[in-house]
Amino acid sequence: MSRIITGSAKGARLITPQGSQTRPTTDRVREALFSSLSTWAGTAAEDPAEQLSGLAVLDLFAGSGALGLEAASRGADPVTWVEKDHGVAAVIKQNQKHTRLSGRIVTASVRNFLAQPAAHANDVILLDPPYELSNDELVTLMATALAHGYLLSDGIFVVERSVRVGEPDWPGGLELSWTRRYGESCLYFCRAAEGNKDD
């Protein structure tokens, strides 16, 4: 069973959806992802419950909600989860109650959610799409998120993909900052290209 790695809800066990419609990020990969994020934020030496304090996080293809919950446990606020399956979204709600972590759950497809202008921009957008989502579809979603104001100019996309899928061609306005590989999983950290940042 998956668990919250650190922060205010450290050790809390997470319910995972039944069936094979979701593919949860392993605890090892999640730990590495958030270690990289705290280094990026310059907060690696701080109290784990405050490492992402003040950062807005958007968890797309949320599944059990583990990524967004880990962010919330480390102080991120607000956190938004987007999950199209009603049953799976209900699991996120259960995990919120169990961990005493809060945030907005949106039951919608990522495509439909991003088609609307953002209510607010985010510091971090987490993308852990299903393997069957093609790189072309992924890049289209990322470009839509940028166009509709979902990412701050100094924010970061974190994308988890299977190494078998290969690296996407990132949309215009983004550049790959660094990658991390863990077994069959690869994490891509993308930021706005220098020429596309606001002054």
Task: Summarize it.
This protein has about 200 residues and is of the alpha/beta class. Helices cover about 30% and strands about 25% of the residues.
Describe the protein's architecture and organization.
Keywords: Methyltransferase, Transferase. Pfam families: Cons_hypoth95. One of its GO terms (molecular function) is methyltransferase activity. InterPro entries: DNA_methylase_N6_adenine_CS, RNA_MeTrfase_RsmD, SAM-dependent_MTases_sf. This is RNA methyltransferase, RsmD family. There is one protein chain. The protein is α/β, with parallel strands linked by helices and 199 residues long. The chain has a single domain, classed as 3-Layer(aba) Sandwich (Rossmann fold), CATH 3.40.50.150. It is 28% helix and 23% strand. It has 5 helices and 7 strands, in the order H-E-H-E-H-E-H-E-H-E-E-E. It has helices at residues 27-41, 66-73, 86-99, 110-114, 135-147; strands at residues 57-60, 79-82, 104-106, 122-127, 151-162, 174-182, 185-192. The chain has a 7-stranded mixed sheet with strand order 3-2-1-4-5-7-6, with helices on both faces. The longest helix is centred in the N-terminal third of the chain and has 15 residues, at 27-41.
